[in-house]
Structures are given as C-alpha cells and as structure tokens.
Amino acid sequence: MMNPVSFTDCGFLRLAVASPELRVGDVDFNTAAIVQVVEKAAAQQCQLLVFPELCITAYSCGDLFFQPLLVEKSLRAVAGLATLTAEHNMALVVGAPVYQQGRLFNCAFFLSGGQVLGAVPKTYLPNTQEFYEERWFSSALDRMGDEIFLENCAIPFGPDLLFQALNKPNCMVGIEICEDAWVSSPPSGEMAGAGATLLLNLSASPEILGKHSYRRALVEAQSARCLAAYAYASAGPGESSTDLVFSGHSLIAENGVVLAETERFEFDSQMAMTDIDVDRLVSERVKNNSYAMARSERVFRVVPFELGGMKKKAAGILRPIARTPFVPADDQDRARRCREIFALQTTALAKRLKHVTASRVVVGISGGLDSTLALLVTVKAFDKLGLDHKGIEAITMPGFGTTRRTRGNAEKLAELLGVTLRVIPIDQAVKQHFADIGHDESLHDITYENAQARERTQVLMDVANQVGGLVIGTGDLSELALGWCTYNADHMSMYGVNSGVPKTLVRYLVDWCALEEFSGETSAVLRDVCETPVSPELLPPGEGDEIRQITEDQVGPYVLHDFFLYHLVRLQYPPRKIYALACHAFAGEFPPDEIIKWLRIFFRRFFSQQFKRSCLPDGPKVGSVALSPRGDWRMPSDASVNLWLAELESLPQ
User: Fold this and answer.
1) pTM (whole model) above 0.85
2) Beta 115-121 vs 103-112: how paired, if at all?
3) Looking at the domain assignment, is residue 325 inside a domain?
4) Which residue, of 88, 201, 256, 521, has the greatest Cβ tally within 10 A?
5) CB neighbours (10 Å) of residue 67?
6) Which residues fall within 8 angstroms of residue 69, CB to CB, at 6 or more apart?
7) How far is CA 372 from the centre of its chain?
8) 454 and 349, same structural domain?
9) Which CATH number does the domain housing residue 121 bear?
C-alpha cells in the first residue's frame, strides 16, 4: 500500500555512493561509466551522488599526472558532467586533478544545477609506504588563492567550502578526500562543528588484509562523533594492480550506523544508496550541548545550491526501518542485548540492596511477564550478593480475575526458585472496601479494577514493613509511557527494576532467561509465561477460565506503541513522520487507518499520564529511551497535546 505521507515531508535526502568501472588514464571511458551510474541513480530518484577520488582519471596514474593532456581532458569532463546535473536534477561530487598557479591539486568538484559550484582540494597527502602523493600533488594548505578558473569561470576553491541547499537548509555538505579521514583531527570534524550534516569522502583506499573492517569502523565512528551522515566513495578494482589492489568498498553511515555499502572486488560499477534522515541529525545536535560547545575555529565559506526534488512520489524509504526498534531482529544481537540488560538490572538492584543493607525484599508475582522478569532479576541480584533466596518474599494475590494458569505459574516458579511464597487472596478485603465506600461490586468499572490494584500494593508495602525489606516494582517502560498503571498502586514501589525495559523486550528477556539462565522445569514455566496473553486480570475470567481481559484490545498493540515511543522520545519525530514510518514498517500488518487510530491514543495517553511519571520511583536506565523525571524526560504534567493531535488530524485519511 502506498504510504499516505510523501517522502519529502519526512525530512529525508536520497544519497548514493558509487565505485564506477574505470580504466587508468582513459578519461572518456571513465566519464561514460560515470554517466551510466548517474542515469541509474536518477531512475531511483537520487538527489546527491558521490564518486571516488580522482575518478575521472583514476587514482593510480602515477607520473601521468604530470601530463597536461590528462589534466585538461579531465577538467573538460568535469564541466560536461556539470551539465548532466541540470538534466537529472541531481548534485554530483567527482574527483579530478586541477592546476592553480604552477601547483597540481587532487580535488573534489561539487556539481549542481548545471554548474561547477566549487572545488575542494585534498589537505593531507600520504607519502609513506605504498603512498607517494607528494610527488604529484600539493596540499590544500599550499594553495595560492581561493579560486580556480574552469571554462572561463571563477570557481570557489579551498578546504573551507561548505555547500548548503537553499531549499533544505538542514542539508549542508562538507567534503574531505581519503587520507583526510585517517588523520587524528579530520577536516570533517570542523565541518560538522560549522553545521555540515552530510560529510562526503572521495577515496581511493587500497585493500589489504583487515583494512575492510577498520575502514568500516572509521566511517561509523566519524559519523557518530560528528552527529552526521558520512558517505565514503572508494575506487574499485579497475585501478592499477601493479602493486596494490583496490576493492571499491563504498559505504554510507548515519550517526554511527552503516546504512548501505557496496560489494567489494567487482569490476562492474557498484552503487549503494540510502535515505539520510537530515532532520534527525539536526535534532540530535540541538539536544546535545557538547555539539554546541564544539565550535569550529575555521571560518567556512558557504556555497548555496538547489537540492533536486523527487520527480514523482517515492514508493518507499531506502533505509531499514525496524518494526521493533528496541528488539534486534538478529538472534545473536538480541541475545547479547538481553544479557546486557539483565546484567544492568541485576547490578542496579544489587547496588540498592547493598546501600540500604537489605537482605529481604517483597515482589508481587502474578504469573505475567513483568512480575516474572522482576522476580528473576531479584533472584540473580541475591545471587550476586550471596544472599539466601528465602529472603525474597514472593507474594501472589489472587483476585476476581486471576486464572488457574497464571496463579499456577506464579506459585510453581516461586517454588522452583527457592524463594519464600505467600498466597494472600484479596477478594474479601476488596469486597469489604467496596462496602466501606458504597460501591456496587457488580459494576465492573475503573473503581472495581483499581481497588484490586491498590489492595495488592497495600499488602506488598505492609509486608515489606513487616519483614524489613524493599518492595520491588514490576511495571515496565511501555506502561509508564501510556500511563497503563494504577496511580499509587502498581505505579508505586521502592525500586522499579523494569522501568527502563519496553514491553516488546520484556518477553524476549524472559525467553532469554529460559534459554540462558535457567533450565529444566523452571525453563518450561518461563516459556509458558511468555505464551500467556498480557492482561491485568482485574475482570472475571471466561467460562473456561480463560483470560478475558486482554490489555492490547484496550490500549492497543504494544509493538505499535513501542515504535511510537522510540520515535517520539529518542528521535523527537513529529506525528506526521512517526505515522509515515509506521506505515512503512508495518505495511501488510496494520492498515494506515488503524495505525493512526492507535497513534492518536498514544499521544493522548502519553501527555495526559505524565503526572504518574513525575513521581516515579527510582529504577535503572537500560537503553536510549527512559522516562525518569530525574534523568531523560522532563515534561510538565499539564502540557497540552493539541498541537500534536492537530498534525495527526491534518494527515490524509
């Protein structure tokens, strides 16, 4: 189904890197290969395309660079490629040598709107081991002026150029060349400090054993350090193999994550393309005061250009959009993340227990996912401290909606883990409370439900006083986001071990515990807990004792809400963009009208329930999204949601 929101509304820019087929010194062949790549990229609505270092001539020409014929021919080719940008409504960056006052420079040319808008010379020239660039080229530091002349036109020239899109101001391009990225203080760092969001590197990086992974790590790290996109276009195996092999390893990273890369060692032209989230990069910078402090000492000249738009509506987004941003799709990555989170939770609780010198805790267990995870964390924290499991008071409190399945799993798990089990039914206490406040117990309203939740919390708090221990909270991050917890009931504890864990990840954590941390009968019980529907069990069960109150039927699918939460809090996306990405990520699973329905509910609940988060108990942050009022999320409880709902109402229905 076509995405209801257009590509350009979402703040993306379509960027590509290419390693074209080439021949050493054959300018016509190389230019024709570049043109073919440009046409292929244009068919995919690319807006900015980056080619390797000296791609017009080839990097490995050696002393042929002293031949004026080669240099002059390559500059005519650059001018010809510039005219191509107007035809295809695309910006190009290509590499070629250029003269300035008796010096030869290795340059990157920025082409847009039919013109050569600027030339950026290479600053750092490697001249060790296999490299001998100082034989042919001068450094940008040795230039004699800020202009060169090409086709009778003065062209801005220097390493101090940035290129800014007039029609997309957040798109500012900085360019460095190969070795510039490998030095201790790359020019791209200053460019990013001056506002460049897209950092381009035209490279001819020869391949040796182990360099592939090192190069990849370098690009990832620089994109993360600069809060930028980093596009690295490298020369392919068409370069001379006299002493070196070039692989054509080109890649694009955004804020520490590689989004696209080419196949290596292919003689045919290779291209990798992705959609860069330019607005996200600016958002990351705005909230990062360290970025604001890292001002560039260099004064840059800004060259304006018009960024080409989409000729037609893009059918999809060329970048991975995870359905479950909190849960890695890869099994091994997911297991590593679960192991790390479980270690964070257990260490956090162990620290709190050490601080208050507590050897007794109280955990309310229901046989559901959240309380099961909290109990497992508590058991492992006790193991870390060498404490007896009998100091864990696991209390199950059957009520009007408790089923045999969940109660059985809670009691069996407590027995298998060797903790102290208490079974304290709450039916009569709640009925007495109904009589005291004059509530008709046949009326299954919010009072009927919340009275049970508050009775359970009262039991837990009082038993904690009785045994001199702490009440361990079981609520998770997704419930806090939606306010799906009863104020002064399951909302409250003395330490909330799950407060940083989203619901979509809780199930995987319990499943991981069943595989990695426990075995035998305990593992079997944990797997059954994972298969149990999420429910507060506050309404009477069905005739066959099945759970009748399914949380996601009321509040919405957690897989959607966790998606919304991540993109709102972690990435600060507006409703329009969250909706567009959700339509892309959940195509075929949820229709757009259902997505927007739950998105409205998410925003209403997220704003209206802030008062519960404002008095949140302590608990560990475990991921990049957290809602503690003392840490990551400071929001007034009376903030209005109208602006966000109004944008949702303006979307195509």
Assistant:
1) yes
2) antiparallel
3) no
4) 201
5) 13
6) none
7) 29
8) yes
9) 3.60.110.10
Strand pairing class (495-496; 470-473): parallel
DSSP element (H, E) containing 437: helix 427-437
Q: What's the CA gap between 382 and 350, in Å, rounded? A: 7
Per DSSP, the residues of 206-236 read B--TTHHHHHHHHHHHHHHHTTSEEEEEE--
User: Which residues form the domain of 351?
Assistant: 331-649
**Token pair of 189, please?**
């760092």
Residue 234 in any domain: the answer is yes
- Catalytic residue, from 10, 55, 178, 485: name it: 178
Dihedrals phi, psi of 559, to nearest 5 degrees? -65, -35
Task: Give the number of other CB atoms < 10 A from CB of residue 555.
Answer: 19
Which candidate in 10, 21, 46, 53 is catalytic?
A: 53
Residue 153 bears catalytic tag: no
Counting the structural domains of the chain, the total is 2
From CA 506, how far away is CA 483, in angstroms rounded?
17
Which of these is catalytic: 122, 168, 380, 577? 122
Helix (H) or strand (E) holding 372, with range, is helix 369-385
Does residue 531 have an active-site annotation? Answer: no
Give domain status of residue 87, yes or no: yes
Shared domain check, 344 and 280: no
Looking at residue 585, the DSSP 8-state letter turns out to be H
What percent of the chain stands above pLDDT 90?
Answer: 87
Asked about 312 being catalytic, the answer comes back as: no
- What is the distance of C-alpha 282 from the center of its chain? 14
- Summarize pLDDT for 17-47 with one digit per residue, the tens: 999 999 999 999 999 999 999 999 999 999 9
- pLDDT exceeds 70 at position 271: yes
488/627 same-domain check: yes
> H-helix or E-strand containing 93?
strand 91-100
pLDDT, one tens digit per residue, over 629-653 is 999 999 999 999 999 999 999 987 6
Any domain includes 336: yes
